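PROTOCOL LOG
Step 1. Enter all chains and additional molecules of the complex.
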Amino acid sequence: MLVIDCPYCGPRPELEFSYGGQAHIARPANPATVETSDWAAFLYLRSNTRGLHAERWRHVRGCARFFNALRDTTTDKFIATYRTGEPAPAIDSRGDR
Amino acid sequence: MANPGLRQAPPVESSSWLRLLPPATRFVFRGPAAAHAAAGTVFGLRLPTTPCRASMRPARAALWLGPDEHLLMAPAEDLGALRSAFASGLRDIPHSLVDVSHRQGALELRGPDAAWLLTAGCPLDLDPAAFPVGMCTRTVFAKTEIVLWRTAAEAFHVEVWRSFTAYLVGMLQEVARELPQ
Ligand SMILES: [Zn+2]
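Step 2. Run joint prediction.
Step 3. Record the structure below.
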């Protein structure tokens, strides 16, 4: 079973977690002034990365908190996890900084 | 007025390793660190700040569920008094306090096979080195969510939502058929 390192609870089994999509997508501060095409991009356009991907996860059957993770989409390996609000660590797929 | 009959705990056949715990007062408390201290004063027990740990004294238990979420438990008859004590003691402090006394019930698993029975449906490592006495966490057992709390080397307190109790007990009894008679 895949083990994911929750930034609050520590290493826990994958089935306690749910996926939350790409990370670091900021909602426009004032949606009323955003062009329709930009709004559509905010809502729907996501990168389809082959390799290292920053994404949101939720430890829904544990502490229930959202956090962010760097996962390699080719190997399904979690390289790092970090708390919401923190910047993505500068790191490569082997875990080297 | 809710029908009190609907709030009855489902019947659970007690055995050497399983029993249904009596009804209790339960609150889910959420708030920032400043609210923790005030809530601890009202509750008469400090809320644990260490992840996945419980603190307890007679008639009080506080379980860490998340960085800003605790499950507070007390005897059923303390519900009214605690509710008004929280209302006055935390009047000026932003927080959320939800009475979940009737949402969930509790089972106790006890004995040398308790951890083995739980590992049939729970993916956590329940070895005492990885899950020591005093550790608690929300997790899963088969297809239902539980709060698991190790109260002694061979005893677990399991919180389960009311309508899932029959499923959880049924699964555990199925697993227990593996035990030597
Ligand atoms: Zn967690």
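Step 4. Note key features.
The mean pLDDT of chain A is 93.
Residues A 6, 8-9, 59, 62-63, 65 surround zinc ion (CB under 6 Å).
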